[in-house]
Design goal:
single chain, 362 residues, alpha+beta, Methane Monooxygenase Hydroxylase, Chain G, domain 1, Alpha-Beta Plaits, Double Stranded RNA Binding Domain, eight-stranded mixed beta sheet, three-stranded antiparallel beta sheet, 11 helices
Length: 362
C-alpha cells in the first residue's frame, strides 16, 4: 500500500469517526433544543454521509476479498467453492477500486463540493467600450452554461454602457456542483478581435476581470451589526422618477476589513439592503478564507483555483476561433461554441488538472 493510499484511508477513518460523533451529538437532548447548533450539525452530517457510506462499502469489499482469499488458501476447499471465491475476488476488487477512486475524487475536491452558491463579479478592464462588450459576452457565456446545467442565475447589480456593454455586472449562481465547475473562472480574461467600431479591420486587445466568491449561508459567517455602517442615498442614473426621488440606494461598509458594497439596482430600499448584505457576506467570507488558505499551505500556488484577479488566466482569440487557458497551457479551437455556453470540455480539463495537483499535494 502506497503512502498516499495510507494517508487517504487515515483521513477517511477520521471522517467516519466524526460522522459517528455527530450522530451522538444530534441525539443529545441539550443540542436538540439548540436549533442553530442542530442545523449546523445536520448540515455537516449531510455533507459527510455519502463519503462515509462509500467508505463503509469499501471496507466491506476489502473484508469480502480477504474472506475469499482464505478459501483459496485452504488446500481442502472444494473446487466449486474455489471457483466462486475467484469470481467474488474479481467482482469485489473492481468494486473496491471504483469506490476508492470515487472517494479520492470527493476528498480532494471536498471544499469545492460543499459550496452550494456563488457570486460572480465581471468588470470591464482596459479597452473602453470594447472591454465592456467583452464583459457582456462573458456574462452571457456563463448564463448560457448555467442554463444548460439547470442552475439558478440571479442578477444582483449591473452598470451598462451606451453601446450595450457592461462596465460591471454582479450575479449569483446556485446549483449542484456549480462552484466546482465555475470556481476556476476568477482572474483576468483577455479578448483579441476586431471591435464593432473598428473601420480599418484591425484586431484590438481588451480585457475584463472576473471574481468568483463563494456565497456563505448566514450560519457559516456571522457579521455583527456593530461592525457595519450603512449609508442610504438616492439612486443615480436611469430608472425613472421613483428611483431618483426615493432614498433606496444602500452602501454597506465593513469596518474591520474596510470592504464596502453598494447596491441600487432595485427601487426598493429593502431589496437593495438584502442584496448588499449577500454581497458583503461573500466578500468578507472570501477575505478571511483567502487568508486561511495562504496561512495553511503554499501549495495553492501550484493549483489553479485561487482566482486572483491580477492573474491572466485566459485569452479569447476571435480571428483564430481559439480559446487558450494559460494556467494549463490548453488551446481549444472552438471559441464560437464556448462563447455560446458550451464550456464543458474546457471546464473538465481545468478540473482534471487541478485534481491531479491536489492529489500530489495530499
Amino acid at each position: 500500500m502506497t503512502e498516499a493510499t495510507t494517508s487517504l484511508l487515515t483521513k477517511l477513518d477520521e471522517l467516519e469517526a466524526r460522522f459517528d460523533q455527530i450522530a451522538k451529538q444530534i441525539s443529545d437532548p441539550s443540542i436538540a433544543c439548540d436549533s442553530a447548533r442542530l442545523i449546523s450539525l445536520s448540515k455537516e452530517q449531510g455533507k459527510l454521509k455519502s463519503l462515509v457510506s462509500k467508505y463503509r462499502e469499501y471496507k466491506s469489499a476489502v473484508s469480502g476479498i480477504a474472506d475469499a482469499e482464505q478459501i483459496l488458501a485452504d488446500a481442502e476447499s472444494e473446487e466449486d467453492f474455489r471457483a466462486l471465491a475467484r469470481e467474488e475476488i474479481e467482482r469485489l476488487q473492481t468494486r473496491r477500486d471504483l469506490l476508492f477512486e470515487q472517494m479520492q475524487d470527493t476528498l480532494v475536491m471536498a471544499d469545492d463540493m460543499n459550496v452550494g452558491s456563488m457570486i460572480i463579479e465581471i468588470r470591464a478592464g482596459t479597452g473602453g467600450d470594447e472591454a465592456a462588450l467583452f464583459a457582456r459576452d462573458l456574462y452571457n457565456m456563463y448564463v448560457r452554461y448555467a442554463d444548460s446545467r439547470k442552475w439558478k442565475v440571479e442578477q444582483l447589480d449591473f452598470s451598462t454602457t451606451e453601446k450595450g456593454g457592461f462596465r460591471e455586472v454582479i450575479f449569483s449562481v446556485k446549483g449542484d456542483k456549480a462552484w466546482s465547475e465555475l470556481g476556476y473562472e476568477g482572474g483576468g480574461h483577455r479578448v483579441q478581435r476586431v471591435p464593432e467600431t473598428e473601420s480599418q479591420g484591425r484586431v484590438h486587445t481588451s480585457a475584463a476581470t472576473v471574481a468568483v466568491l463563494p456565497e456563505p449561508e448566514e450560519l457559516e459567517i456571522e457579521i455583527p451589526a456593530d461592525d457595519v455602517v450603512e449609508h442610504v442615498s438616492r439612486s443615480s442614473g436611469p430608472g425613472g422618477q421613483n428611483v431618483n426621488k426615493v432614498s433606496s440606494a444602500i452602501k454597506l461598509e465593513h469596518i474591520p476589513t474596510g470592504i464596502t458594497v453598494s447596491m441600487q439596482d432595485e427601487k426598493s430600499q429593502h431589496k437593495n439592503r438584502a442584496k448588499a448584505w449577500r454581497l458583503l457576506r461573500s466578500r468578507v467570507y472570501e477575505h478571511f478564507e483567502s487568508k486561511k488558505r495562504m496561512e495553511r499551505d503554499s501549495q495553492r500556488k501550484t493549483m489553479i483555483g485561487s482566482g486572483d484577479r491580477s492573474q491572466k488566466i485566459r485569452t479569447y482569440n476571435y480571428p483564430q476561433n481559439r480559446v487558450t487557458d494559460h494556467r494549463i497551457n490548453l488551446s481549444l479551437y472552438s471559441l464560437d461554441r464556448i462563447m455560446a455556453g458550451d464550456m464543458g470540455e474546457l471546464i473538465e480539463a481545468i478540473k482534471d488538472h487541478d485534481k491531479q495537483q491536489r492529489l500530489k499535494n495530499l
